[in-house]
Amino acid sequence: MDKTLMKNLEGLNVGANTYVVGYDTKAGKTGLIAVSQVSGSLPWFGRKWAKGNSSPVGSPVGDFDLGQVLAKQLGLGGYLVTDAHQRTKLSPTNHNLLESGGAADLTGGAGHYQWGWNVPFYYQVYEDDYYLYETVSLGGPRPGFWNYYIPIGSRSCAGYAAMDRTNAKLMSVVNSTAQFRGGNNDASLDGLFNSQLCKPATNMAITAFRSAARKNGTLWFANERVMQYITAALKRIIFGNRNIQAAFNATLDANGLRQGGTGTGIDQPASWSDTWKYYPYVNLNVGIDQGDFTGILSTTINDDGTQKAIGNIPSFYGLKNDYKYLFCMSENMLLQNNADKSQTLFVADMIDGTQMNLSSVAGLREIGKGPVASAAGWLYAKEYTLKNLAFFPKEELGATSSTFFCDGYYNPAATSGLRGAGLLGTADHGAFAGSVSLNGHYAVSVANANWGAFLCEYAEAFTTQPVWCVENK
């Protein structure tokens, strides 16, 4: 190359889109090689939040090129997933179609209608004197860091799952037949405005939901905590915002990265409590024709004889209604009430299909102690423990619905006993709801009209203990 031209070339930041030219002598071909393959470095991207800064907005770190295409690199979007964990990508523009162009059967005959990622990746959460970081790396663990391995996985693409009433299986389907009737399976509502056909199953305890999930086979779960944790982490990293209820912003920032959130969450009917009795009111087919859409959806329902528009339905690369609609009791989080009116979170490390004991903390891993409550109610903590792929508020209060993590935590102010971990929040919980919203008030046996389940699965078993990756020398 001409020396003058070399001298005038601008320096490049090495990123996911940086390549060098190589020549394969055996094949006789010239082609492009990713610099990361040559240098041995791994592409990674994430966000950092300044300690003590109440703003939920973080700053990007790592490979900005990767950040711009992270969702694509992970394969975020809709899939058909069989009981044996074989997955087929749905069209990114319309989930009624396969990516290959054929019609997609979302009724249950070809698999479960799921949202997820099609490559394994590594997640890192760490801090220094000034910042807390959340990052992901592709292709391998980050050297010099503690890494959590995240296998290929998925969850209900419609936000929540249905029950196959014939076979007592929890399934992710879009099916209007009586076999998959939602709510509490009340057939008397089928011809009424509040019909539960094509709606999520509710009014079942988590022990029943998780048993129904395992009817699909190994590594199928209901409201599994890691799935919720990693979904929330990906949202924070991609949007650069801890407040997932922030207004949606279609404009990319100056770095070509997403900003904002996916809105406040679903609107309510005129009287959810009286005329709907807190049962689901939006069908599982909402937004399927929008494919892997990110933004805000809307639909229309028959609300006791009146057509009512229901807006503010969030969609994250096709994952719809995943917060502020129905509570979901985690199948593998257990809260212990303490004498000082705080709670402590316990979890199990192995995600291998074993059903965690929800009646005792014996043998479980302690994640952290939360804030003390002077009286039962919703609280906002400034910081969260993010450990072993579990989230729990730390002791210091003083945050709000628009600062720090922005989601609410309900402490019952009880001095003894065990409680389950209610995730996501309901349609009437407003700003308390969100990706890391947690309700510690209820026993694990709760079964109400507004408690449902998302079906989730992983391609392989894994541990939630991080592994240190030796730094390259």
Polypeptide structure, described:
This protein is mainly β and 473 residues long. Helices cover 10% and strands 32% of the residues. It has five helices and 33 strands. The chain has helices at residues 3-8, 35-39, 64-74, 206-213, 225-239; strands at residues 19-24, 29-34, 44-50, 59-62, 77-81, 87-89, 112-117, 121-127, 131-137, 146-150, 153-156, 162-164, 169-171, 220-222, 248-249, 259-260, 295-303, 306-316, 319-320, 327-337, 343-347, 350-351, 365-369, 377-379, 384-387, 390-393, 409-411, 418-423, 438-439, 451-452, 455-458, 462-463, 467-468. The strands form nine sheets. Strands 20, 21, 23, 24, 27, 28, 29 and 30 form an eight-stranded mixed beta sheet that branches. A six-stranded antiparallel beta sheet has the order 4-3-9-8-10-33. A hairpin with a 3-residue loop joins strand 8 (121-127) and strand 9. The longest helix is centred in the middle third of the chain and has 15 residues, at 225-239. It is globular, with a radius of gyration of 23 Å. The protein starts with a helix and ends in a 5-residue tail after the last strand. Mean pLDDT is 93; it is low at 5-16 and 33-40.
